[in-house]
Amino acid sequence: MKVTAEIRNECASQWTPDAALCTTWIESALRSVGHSRDCDISISFVDAAAIADLNARYRDKPQPTNVLSFPGDFPEQLVHTLAYQPLGDIVICPSVMAAEAQQQSKELQSHWAHIMIHGVLHLLGYDHIKPAAARRMEQIEIEALATLGIPDPYLIG
Q: How much is the pTM?
């Protein structure tokens, strides 16, 4: 499986992971659910105002959030003709990530890994609306993080 992570960083003054680190985390998420097809993901790092605008526009929640995922909505016939699968877009706010890591007493890079994996799972159709789906998604996250040597994020903080 080859993962292409296209990154747009509008927050160069804050720590953000590079493409290699993002790819490692994405691959961990994909392997944890048995996904083996080559894929492409677009990742944007944006400020709090930009993610609040997106959150208001697409989720009716006018405040900043850590991550938003926008699954690719391509016709199945088109996807089958491509050499890779376009999974969609992930938008992350570094300032929210830093604040959350500090508030929850989590190592920043580990928190980023968790939220990136969380975002990828959303691209694959996982959600946490119903309790059973939330438990399943959390378990996948825990397993994917464990392969990276990162402890269960739900036990920290």
A: 0.94
